[in-house]
Design a protein that fits this description.
The structure holds two protein chains of two kinds.
Chain A lengths: L14 H9 L3 H21 L4 H17 L10 H20 L16 H6 L4 H5 L4 H12 L4 H8 L3 H19 L13
Chain B lengths: L1 H14 L7 H40 L2 H30 L6 H25 L1
Classes of the chains: A mainly alpha, B mainly alpha.
Chain lengths: 192, 126
Amino acid sequence: MGATSSPRTPASLHDVELAALSAAGDRQAFGELVRRHGSAVRGLLRRMGADPATADDVAQDAFLAAFERIAEFRGEGAFAGWVKKIAARLYLRRFRKGVKLDLSAEPETEPEPSHEAASNRRIDLDEALKVLSPNERICVSLCYGGGLSHAEAAEALNAPLGTVKSHVKRGLDKLRERLAAPTDKTGERVHG
Amino acid sequence: MADLDFETRLERMFAQPPAFADADVFARRVESRLDRSWTLRRWAIGAAGLVGGVVATGQVVGSNLSERMQGFGAETMADLTNSARGFAPELKALSVLPVGTEVLWMGAALAVMAIALVATRMLEEL
């Protein structure tokens, strides 16, 4: 019955354990965290509207910043959520430098997809987000993908809370419509 | 309620990361940047230590420390000898006490420990 203690590889460790090892300077452990959560961070940045090259660049910077501040991660929340917040804030900083983010701008009118097109294919989140204006997209992604509260998003965007809330609401309305279960030509819901 | 359901559903969708074919390449890139910055930092710390050491050595050599130490050593030895002579009668008186020298040494050691303890506590308070 003697239990044998096999050496634990980074892949078998929990995020919190890997973070603790990383805090002690173990870069291999941190590499495992990057492998686990890299796609989530890159995905969030692309969903916020970043082009693939910028998203990857910012995601790399976010992981390096996370390694520098790894001692601050105490495991109260998910590691992915923590890095996503860092990445989202880094992207916004870079975004504001390059583009004037005018959150007070009137929402742009997006071309409505034809009912037939919407009903004939299952629409995923990434497709649906394309319907949103850049402002709505950033606000919705920050709050539902980056895990920021409306107030935190307003602070990160340097915008009034009410403006952020209205962008989120408009974005949610569009997404709700876009992500509604597809229907067939008779109007019946299609399952599966 | 429907709003809440939709928001929960949306959060779940956001939590599902898209699959990237180059996920491993991305991870390796981050690791190599991490290694580069680590190596750079080690070199920077080493260089700073070297510069600091050179400056400190220069200061020590430039301030004639060894000559001062020699002078200080001679003065101190003379002072200690004078003090010891002054204490000689008191030390003789101690030998009259009904305790051994071991007890005296132990007492002295305890006194030193007590002083160290008080000093430590004071430093902690500060």
